[in-house]
């Protein structure tokens, strides 16, 4: 017989985190990386991210610094923009930038023969971007890395977790070898909910008095 657990509404998240920590066991991750992993598992119910997530050694501190400096967060799809906590971001002065659905992006993509995701990243180069978060479009992540290699773009952290079967795993494999701060999830797993969960974890970390 199915047993329903009765938990007060205010305690649901804390109880979820307790269950996640118990099932994860010892991870060996630093506290900041653990908080990102925990919130991703909370958002997806998928403990496999324990094996798939990869962090540059300076990823957490770079993300926190970018948020605290009031730099903007660039996302590849509007769904991500909707999921990022406006309440947590507002005190720092940054904003979420998404240029995917703008007419100018469609026009530029048509002119260049590129995807709208690539055009959106290109158009956002001058938007004081501190964190790039890609959860949907591998072409967006590849474009970001190309612009950084050319010295045309300099975000503090690249959060690249596109999901799918065409160049998703490949783009993340490339990102995992970069010398600059990144967070990624190797293989086909990923998605906008993963990107949003990681960003919201970083926002909570930035709101703490110490990293």
UniProtKB/TrEMBL annotation:
Gene Ontology biological process: cobalamin biosynthetic process
Listed GO MF terms: precorrin-8X methylmutase activity
One of the Pfam families matching this protein, by short name: CbiC
Keyword annotations of the record: Cobalamin biosynthesis, Isomerase
Functional pathway: Cofactor biosynthesis; adenosylcobalamin biosynthesis
Cobalamin biosynthesis precorrin-8X methylmutase CobH/CbiC domain location: 11-204
InterPro entries in the cross-refs: Cbl_synth_CobH/CbiC, CobH/CbiC_sf
Family classification: Belongs to the CobH/CbiC family.
Protein name in the entry: Precorrin-8X methylmutase
Source organism of this protein record: Desulfobulbus oralis
């Amino acid at each position: 017989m199915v047993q329903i657990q009765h938990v007060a509404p205010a305690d649901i998240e804390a109880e979820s985190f307790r269950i996640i920590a118990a099932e994860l066991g010892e991870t060996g991750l630093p506290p900041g990386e653990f908080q990102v992993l925990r919130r991703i598992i909370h958002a997806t119910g998928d403990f496999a991210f324990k094996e798939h997530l990869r962090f540059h050694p300076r990823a957490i501190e770079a993300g926190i610094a970018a948020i605290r400096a009031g730099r903007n967060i660039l996302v590849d799809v509007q769904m991500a923009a909707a999921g990022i906590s406006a309440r947590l971001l507002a005190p720092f002065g940054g904003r979420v930038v998404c240029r995917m659905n703008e007419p100018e992006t469609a026009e530029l993509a048509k002119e260049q023969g590129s995807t709208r995701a690539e055009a959106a990243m290109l158009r956002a180069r001058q938007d004081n971007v501190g964190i790039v978060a890609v959860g949907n479009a591998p072409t967006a992540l590849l474009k970001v890395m190309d612009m950084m290699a050319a010295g045309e773009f300099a975000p503090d952290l690249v959060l690249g977790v596109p999901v799918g079967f065409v160049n998703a795993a490949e783009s993340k494999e490339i990102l995992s070898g970069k010398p600059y701060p990144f967070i990624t999830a190797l293989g086909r797993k990923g998605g906008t909910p993963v990107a949003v969960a990681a960003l919201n974890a970083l926002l909570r970390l930035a709101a703490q008095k110490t990293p």
